[in-house]
Write a structure and sequence with these properties.
Number of helices: 13
Largest sheet: 5 strands, mixed
Distance between the termini: 77 Å
Radius of gyration: 38 Å
Amino acid sequence: MVAVLDAVLGPVIRPSTYRRWVFLILGGAVLVPFMLIVGMVLPSLMPAAFQDETTLVVALSLVLVIGVMGLMSLIPAVRVIEGTAARELLGDGVPEQAARVAVSWTSRARFAAWFVIHLVVGGVLSILTLTVPPTAVLTFFAPFTGRVDMLGLTVTTPRGWAGAWVPLAGLTGLVVLVHLVVGAAVLATRAAPFLLGPTAAERLAELEQRTEQLAERNRLARELHDSVGHALSVVTIQASAAGRVLDSDPAFARTALSAIEESARAALADLDHVLGLLRDGQSATRPQWTLENLPNLLEQTRIAGVTVESTVEGSLGAVPPAVSREAYRIVQEGLTNVLRHAGKVPVELRLAATDDRLELDLSNPVHEHRAKPRAGGGHGLSGMRDRVAVLRGQMTAGPDRGRWLVQVRIPLRTVR
């Protein structure tokens, strides 16, 4: 019994019912100007038809009203206002794209159908809203007056207890109207994802945009990890070394402090570049470190106390810029990993540039007490692999005869 009462009377007391009711009545309110326009245009164009051809006039009126509403729906502001009202009054079932300007004719056609249906259904419900509640109020006087007067019509009813059913009929009409409103709102909410939501092509475009944004965020994260991470690792070791020999070897301490300053400046330049991209999509300073800047990177690492032996085969200047930038970051991250996980051990670096590919080998001794990576590590190799994968290259990393060896092979012909 309770469930039946909730099903029948629940919509009457729910606030969401009346919020949805307002949305539907708004459609009826917007319909009125269209009806007035048609009512003024048709009589002047077809005066004879208004006297003899009533059916034809009604049909033409409907076609003209729907046509005008369809044209009005093409105005971008109409979709924004209608979609915003739908989201606010119908609830979360309406997609957020409903309040955005349509970008395809398919979306415009779907919105035109939504707009016309909203106005027509809203017009019908508006008429019922203007007639049913006042009639329901008048039915309460029927047992005393024996009649119900509404819109110039008089309905005779029994007096006294014999007419007690008339107020009940009026209340029933109100409940039925509420359920009609709820039903129309539910159907509108279910139709909203199709009529107001994105098309398949728009979903694909949005997915591609999000994918590009995610890829860009990952790229910026790698830039910060590689550049700033390397600078902080080098600065930490250099500062520690300078502190130990500050009194005994002032010259080395000054050299270390100069290297710290240079590393910090480079890190700040990279940080400013990345933050500029995150802030407004562009940056005033765009550092583009390439393999031509490799000697400076190796010198900073040597000042940190790491012996680096480098071998270069071929012309690094002939390497495509995209490959050169990524290869620089790969070497930078490789050296950072050595500093973090192996310490001040000798490093061997080999770079070979041919017409077909770039070869990069970076190795260092592995000690048993350094075999396990420090806590919090593990992003360096994955970032290097990401860079290599973007360039359609191959990378291997692991122990090799007592040394940790990183090998990178990047094709050059496909990226020129």
